[in-house]
Write a structure and sequence with these properties.
Residues 155-328, 609-844 form the Glutamate-ammonia ligase adenylyltransferase repeated domain. The chain is built from 42 helices and twelve strands. By secondary structure, the protein is mainly alpha-helical. The strands form three sheets. Strands 3, 4, 5, 6 and 7 form a five-stranded mixed sheet that branches. Strands 8, 9, 10, 11 and 12 form a five-stranded mixed sheet that branches. The protein has a two-stranded antiparallel ribbon with strand order 1-2.
Length: 1018
């Protein structure tokens, strides 16, 4: 019974191991009845340790050392020692091992008079480490004239420095963890801990330099300064972190090599004893010289430095070596830092670098990354640094290298709302606390939260971070909730940090529900500077749009003020933020009376995000959206399903369109309905295309199906209104329409065929059918806000000079007597799309012998096709066009691939029925199946066709009008690349390189297969 009571009591203390009771009894803290008299507080301090079992095992090892009796006596009376010791031993195996190896260091954790004084300062720590290696703390800093030199060198010096550094780390960590072991003990703020860790790093660098000086014995005139960068420079260091530095030396010349040897040796000593030293932020990175003179640094940064290098210099601070040289370095380079924001695409480059960091995180780690993941520490640091660089050019109060100090200054100066600044600082401190605890455990560099299924590790982390259960959730649940909350808050505040002050600058009203003291208010000049830095080419125009959207006291203006921080953040990543904001204003004004428009954007985050992508990329979408706002509802994502409404079945769409149009009373109303439906569908398809939800052949098929349905429903409407028909009419699709490959800007290439009704002669039938067809063309081409669908019949026999409509007999007579090879080639795409189906099938049967000749093509006919193609390439390419990037007539473009497939069809479809298709891609696949073209060559041609078709569609989406020539540079090229799925903010030259590579390979196949060229051909 007694043993059961003991087990229950131990379990309450968190000790579940089978040997815990035995260990406690051996320590004299526990007997059969529970805690020994005088040891109750020891037990409760042990229970509060993050890992009670780990702490108890460490104590058991400590009890075997000489000082244990003295430690035991102190634990019974010293509350501070109990809290610090058990919290440290339960939080860090590495520090526990250090204490057991050096048990006399237990006094670093005891309550002494020193505890009443401020924490140890930089001078005390530096003196301690210098004395540990035998250097005189009173001498000038090592690296300067007459500077301190260590008495110890080599392995002995490294060992002494390592021990002294770990002693300092133990004392600091125990103070940091004290409140974990005892809630009554003082709590150290995470920024104070980070600052002291940076001080300790400075002391470590100074001691390591003193050892290196003793070993290298440099010339007396050589001066070396160590410039702290990154978290060391910002006095916000982690427990385990690389210490980033840059070296500067004088006087240079022959002594530069000696300075490099000294710096290199200092880095190795520090790496073996304390921490890794990283000098990769120096000019030219790893490839650059380790040490440069001050003039060498200045010259590099003035002539060659990239934007991110100036961002890194924000945190530059002398930390070791010659102090005067270090100050001169900072004084010389600081002005250059604050000019960096004037560079073109400054913020875009910094944001692109941030996105690359996120993209390089392995997917399985992305949700657990405290530092690099979305909503993590780096997001806060990047946001603060961007705002510093943008506004610090004119406000020197923003020049602090410390993230939290700079954030406070931004809030104080009105560049960030005070509440936003305070909330962001709180989240940053929480994330840094988790990072510190994770690194303390084994003194290893890590930023990864334990995996979701590792309950023990998560429980340990929660307890080490002073997280307590809240009554509804245990500590693991609370930890997860707090991590998610703070991560989301960091992500959302990023939008407000950059954009909410802009709204206050343009609106006379404070944001609804926000007190003036918490809302930032930029000056007009500061607002323009921020917008320019964030990617707006016309800041004044953007401010005008913001004034128009947020001005007044209407409900719409209030919603816009709440929405715009999010929308502007999304737009800043778009290829053309200026056009996107203008388009958003126009759409908002056009839909001002639509009651659900702003509510949808406010309540459906995915809709707002997707809309900004569309408006910032495409000129076609906003033109269509004002008259088809209902498509906005399709942008929502529900239950994880990727917007099925955006990717509807084309057959279903065509049936619905024809049914809707058939209900209209007049041809004019029917055409208006058909064109309106087509506008809606073009917008839906464009949205799905830009959002990456449709492949290029799906886009073409969807557009083609709509065009077919519009033509068919219009013809039906005119026929219904025309009284007794005198002929049956069939519409034959030609070109891209017949091939099922329509693009956004394609005309409707067609032929018209008729068959006289009973008792009607051919002349009257053709005359009547021509009047019907003319009316169809006139209705579809009439002026309208909706996109026109021009009906082009120029591919008919005799071209524009020939009759618009012919009978079957007339077509038969013409093709038998007069048809040329190019006309047979054009008929390869002929497909009935509207009107009388039986007549359409008869026409197809009539032309099959023409387009699929039984004997194939003669050599002269092949030569004629090649000659025509060469002439088209030479004469129709516009003057000044780039043949490598012209999607239609360029090398490896649409014409190259389509003519190659059509030549194979003319040569072989008479014998191979499988080749009898109007589709380019289907014909290409069948040719490969039949062995007419090598499988690898077929893949190259298919990729070329897909790439050119996608690019041609993207040009229409971006410009809002058809075009075949890819932009050479600028925002249009970036928008085309983004429309094709390349990363926003990336280098559009990558897309151009890819396009040229794909089409170059396709062209090589065309030269072999179509032209019959070989490597020996001249």
């Amino acid at each position: 019974m007694m043993e059961r009571r003991t087990g229950t009591s131990l379990a309450r203390l968190g000790l579940t191991g089978s040997t815990a009771g035995e260990t406690l009894r051996s320590l004299g803290w526990w007997d059969a009845d529970g805690p020994v008299a005088g040891c109750e507080q020891i037990m409760w301090a042990l229970a509060r340790s993050p890992d009670q079992e780990l702490a108890l095992r460490a104590v058991e090892r400590l009890s075997r050392t000489g000082p244990w009796p003295e430690i035991d006596r102190a634990l019974r009376t010293d509350r501070g020692l109990r809290g610090r010791l058990f919290a440290t031993l339960g939080s860090s195996t590495a520090l526990g091992d250090h204490l057991i190896t050096h048990p006399d260091r237990w006094r670093l954790l005891a309550d002494t008079a020193d505890r009443e004084n401020p924490p140890p300062d930089l001078a005390r720590r530096t003196a301690h480490l210098l004395r540990a290696v035998g250097a005189d703390p009173a001498a000038p800093p090592p690296g300067s004239a007459g500077g301190a030199r260590a008495r110890l060198t080599g392995a002995e010096a490294v060992g002494a420095l390592r021990t002294a550094y770990r002693d300092e780390l133990l004392g600091l960590a125990s103070a940091d963890l004290a409140a974990v072991g005892d809630p009554e003990l003082p709590v150290m703020e995470v920024d104070d801990v980070a600052a002291q860790l940076a001080d300790l790093a400075e002391a470590g660098l100074t001691a390591a330099l003193a050892i290196a000086v003793a070993e290298q014995e440099p010339a007396d005139e050589l001066r070396l300064a160590v410039i702290g960068m990154g978290k060391c420079g910002g006095r916000e260091l982690n427990y385990v972190s690389d210490v980033d530095v840059i070296f500067v030396a004088e006087p240079g010349g022959e002594l530069t090599q000696d300075a490099s040897k000294l710096a290199s040796r200092m880095m190795r000593i520090a790496g073996e004893a304390c921490f890794e030293v990283d000098a990769n932020l120096r000019p030219e990175g790893r490839q650059g010289a380790l040490v440069r003179t001050l003039d060498g640094h200045v010259t590099y940064y003035r002539r060659w430095a990239k934007t991110w290098e100036f961002q890194a210099l924000l945190k530059a601070r002398p930390v070791a070596g010659d102090p005067e040289l270090g100050k001169a370095y900072v004084a010389a380079l600081s002005p250059l830092v604050w000019q960096a924001s004037a560079r073109d695409d400054f913020v875009a480059e910094v944001q692109a670098m941030r996105r690359r960091v996120v993209d390089n995180i392995p997917s399985e780690k992305r949700e657990r990354e405290l530092k690099l993941g979305r909503g993590g520490l780096r997001d806060v640091e990047f946001a603060v640094q961007l705002l510093q660089l943008v506004h610090g050019r004119t406000d020197d109060t923003l020049h602090s290298p410390n993230t939290l100090e700079a954030l406070g200054e931004l809030a104080e100066g009105g560049y960030v709302g005070r509440d936003d600044g305070a909330n962001l600082a709180a989240s940053y401190r929480f994330l840094r606390l988790l990072e510190h605890r994770l690194q303390l455990q084994k003194l290893r560099r890590t930023h990864l939260l334990p995996a979701a299924g590792d309950t023990d590790a998560l429980r340990w982390l929660a307890r080490a971070a002073r997280i307590r259960p809240d009554g509804r959730r245990d500590v693991v649940g609370v930890l997860d909730a707090e991590w998610q909350r703070n991560s989301r808050r960091v992500s959302r505040l990023h939008e407000k940090l950059f954009y909410r002050p802009l709204l206050a600058a343009v609106s006379r009203l404070a944001t609804e529900g926000v007190d003036d003291t918490t809302d930032a208010a930029l000056s007009p000049d500061a607002a323009r500077a921020r917008l320019k830095a964030l990617g707006w080419a016309s800041p004044e125009g953007a401010l005008g749009h913001l004034r128009a959207l947020t001005g007044g006291v209407s409900r719409a203006a209030s919603i816009q003020r709440a929405l715009l921080p999010v929308l502007l953040d999304e737009l800043s990543h778009a290829p053309d933020p200026d056009r996107g904001l203008l388009a958003y204003r126009r759409v908002s004004e056009a839909l001002a009376s639509t009651p659900w428009y702003l509510r949808l954007l406010r309540d459906e985050g995915a809709v707002a995000q997707r809309l900004m992508i569309l408006l910032g990329t495409s000129a076609l979408v906003p033109d269509l959206l004002a008259r088809a706002p209902e498509v906005l509802r399709m942008l929502a994502i529900s239950s994880g399903v990727q917007s099925p409404e955006l990717t509807r079945d084309p057959v279903e769409v065509a049936v619905a369109l024809r049914a809707t149009v058939a209900r209209q009373p007049t041809p004019e109303a029917a055409v208006a309905s058909a064109r309106s439906y087509r506008r809606h569908e073009m917008l839906r398809i464009a949205c799905a295309d830009l959002l990456g939800l449709l492949e290029v052949d799906q886009v073409c098929a969807a557009l083609n199906s709509v065009n077919d349905a519009v033509l068919a429903s219009t013809l039906d409407a005119v026929l219904r209104a025309g009284g007794e028909p005198k002929a049956a009419i069939a519409v034959i699709g030609m070109g891209r329409l017949g091939g099922g490959e329509s693009s956004y800007g394609s005309d409707a290439d067609v032929l018209f065929v008729c068959r006289p009704a009973d008792g009607v002669d051919d002349h009257d039938a053709v005359k009547w059918a021509t009047a019907v067809v003319e009316r169809v063309r006139r209705l579809l081409g009439s002026p309208s806000p909706d996109p026109a669908l021009p009906v082009d019949a120029d591919l008919r026999p005799e071209g524009r000079s020939g009759p618009l409509v012919r009978t079957l007999a007339s077509y038969k007579g013409y093709y038998q007597r007069w048809a040329e090879t190019w006309e047979a080639q054009a008929l390869l795409r002929a497909r009935p799309i509207a009107g009388d189906r039986a007549l359409g099938r008869e026409f197809t049967a009539l032309i099959d012998p023409v387009r699929y000749p039984a004997d194939g093509l003669s050599d002269s006919a092949v030569a004629e096709i090649r000659r025509i193609k060469a002439r088209v390439d030479a004469e129709r390419l516009p003057r000044g066009a780039d043949r490598t990037t012209h999607t239609k007539l360029g090398h490896g473009g649409l014409a190259d691939v389509e003519w190659t497939v059509q030549l194979l069809q003319l040569q072989h479809a008479g014998d191979l029925p499988e080749l009898r298709t109007t589709s380019t891609l289907e014909g290409l696949r069948e040719a490969a199946e039949a062995g007419l073209v090598d499988a690898d060559d077929a893949r190259e041609l298919e990729e070329g066709w897909r790439t050119a078709t996608s690019a041609r569609n993207a040009i229409m989406l971006v410009r809002g009008k058809p075009g075949d020539q890819l932009p050479r540079s600028g925002r249009e090229l970036a928008a085309v690349a983004a429309a094709l799925g390349y990363p926003a903010g990336g280098d559009p030259g990558v897309f151009l390189d890819d396009y040229r590579r794909v089409t170059r390979r396709a062209r090589a196949v065309v030269e072999r297969v179509f032209y019959g060229w070989t490597e020996d051909s001249s």
